[in-house]
């Protein structure tokens, strides 16, 4: 059975690129989710990514107590293709047209490979794009709050494991130093942790030098001995092959869809590794967009809500300990229940 409410796939009239929008659920409210501009073997792989990421957005909003549904979009680049400025503009205008055609059921912001400036271009074709550049009166990059929320999750995890949120002298390893990972690296370094970082982009080594962090290859970083491993690049990194090789007591990161499949959560628990559900950890970005752009709230209000990810995660850990379930199971049951109840209410209203 199709789990998604709506899927749009079209070839961009200007760019010729596959533009994909997946709306997983609008049971709790309009679907929100970022636009990913990334390279895929073919558009079907981009579609698979959009389907999985939009579903995760539904449960991310539900877990964060937001009244929004889940969606996601992908502009799929063929392998090896890098867009020049003109091609990128064409792609974002095509994307804006696609968002507009959904009539406001899906609202977009930036994700991997896109920026606030890209959303500003899409804005020429639709008003349902958000997190626009501050210079144009928008709320700006959501990554700042994603990093702040992830830091709150790391603190809560540290407290759960050691009794103190202090990271002084602890070893934190961040894999992926992009919009979120780069900001998070600053926060972790400022907290006095020993920091190791990795990225496939050699240019990010500059940030490692500036922060006094160790720079290692990504494949080494994932399995090195560390106190907290932070996946901050792409998803699917926690597989049944990788889990036996992990050498850390906890994995807490902003990357979406880290588990190759849900059973990996059990494998992590069986090894005594605490895994913070990613859809709880990385809600700072959607909190930014929904509180500032939709509800007209202040940056301070949104920041306080993103910091609330720490206590929310602590509660999930506690309930996991009390019930013998994994944190993933606890968080996912709660989020699914919220969405199921909203679906029931909607069904009753329509009948
Ligand atoms: P980004 O594109 O700015 O950064 C991703 C970084 O990861 C890049 O520097 C890239 O070179 C690096 N990378 C890619 N593959 C890698 C690999 N195999 N090993 C090591 N590094 C690799 O993206 P971002 O906005 O920082 O998002 C990072 C993750 O967090 C994504 O999974 C995204 O979906 C998730 N996320 C982001 C936000 C947000 O506010 N930006 C919100 C929620 C979730």
Name a few traits of the molecule.
351 residues; alpha/beta; Rossmann fold; 2 domains; 5-stranded mixed sheet; 13 helices; 16% strand; binds nicotinamide-adenine-dinucleotide
Describe this structure as you would to a colleague.
There is one protein chain. This protein is of the alpha/beta class and 351 residues long. The chain has 2 domains: 6-52 and 71-136, 3-Layer(aba) Sandwich (Rossmann fold), CATH 3.40.50.10860; 143-283 and 311-335, 3-Layer(aba) Sandwich (Rossmann fold). The chain is 46% helix and 16% strand. The chain is built from 13 helices and 11 strands. It has helices spanning 43-63, 85-101, 116-122, 143-162, 179-190, 205-211, 218-222, 263-270, 278-281, 284-294, 299-307, 309-323, 327-350, and strands at 6-11, 18-25, 31-39, 69-77, 106-110, 171-175, 194-198, 214-215, 228-231, 250-251, 274-275. The strands form 2 sheets. Strands 8-7-6-9-10-11 form a 6-stranded parallel β-sheet, sandwiched between helices. A hairpin with a 6-residue loop joins strand 1 (6-11) and strand 2. Helix 4 crosses helix 5. The two termini are 22 Å apart. Nicotinamide-adenine-dinucleotide binds next to helix 4 and helix 5. Nicotinamide-adenine-dinucleotide binds at residues 111-113, 142-143, 146, 175-181, 198-201, 204, 218, 232-235, 254-256, 282, 285.
């Amino acid at each position: 059975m199709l789990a998604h409410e709506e899927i749009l796939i079209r070839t961009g009239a200007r760019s010729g690129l596959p533009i994909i929008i997946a709306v997983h659920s609008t049971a709790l409210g309009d679907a929100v989710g970022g636009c990913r501009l990334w390279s895929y073997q073919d558009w079907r792989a981009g579609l698979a990514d959009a389907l999985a990421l939009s579903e995760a957005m539904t449960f991310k909003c539900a877990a964060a107590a937001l009244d929004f549904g889940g969606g996601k979009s992908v502009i799929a680049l063929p392998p090896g293709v890098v867009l020049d400025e003109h091609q990128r503009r064409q792609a974002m205008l095509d994307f804006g047209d696609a968002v507009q055609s959904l009539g406001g059921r899906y609202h977009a912001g930036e994700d991997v490979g896109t920026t606030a400036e890209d959303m500003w271009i899409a804005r020429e074709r639709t008003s349902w794009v958000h997190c626009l550049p501050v210079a144009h009166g928008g709320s700006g990059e959501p990554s700042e709050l994603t990093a702040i929320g992830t830091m709150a999750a790391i603190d809560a995890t540290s407290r759960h494991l050691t009794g103190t949120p202090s990271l002084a002298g602890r070893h934190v390893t961040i894999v992926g130093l992009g919009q979120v990972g780069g900001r998070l690296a600053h926060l972790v370094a400022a907290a006095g942790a020993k920091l190791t970082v990795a990225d496939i982009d050699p240019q990010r080594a500059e940030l490692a030098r500036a922060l006094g962090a160790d720079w290692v290859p990504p494949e080494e970083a994932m399995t090195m001995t560390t106190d907290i491993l932070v996946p901050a690049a792409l998803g699917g990194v926690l597989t049944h092959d990788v889990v036996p090789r992990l050498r850390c007591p906890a994995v807490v990161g902003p990357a979406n869809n880290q588990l190759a499949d849900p059973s990996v959560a059990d494998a992590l628990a069986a090894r005594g590794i605490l895994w913070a559900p990613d859809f709880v950890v990385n809600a700072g970005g959607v909190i930014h967009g929904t509180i500032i752009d939709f509800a007209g709230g202040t940056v301070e209000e949104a920041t306080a809500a993103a910091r609330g990810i720490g206590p929310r995660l602590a509660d999930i850990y506690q309930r996991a300990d009390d019930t013998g379930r994994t944190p993933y199971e606890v968080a996912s049951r709660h989020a699914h229940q919220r969405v199921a109840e909203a679906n029931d209410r909607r069904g009753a209203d329509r009948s």
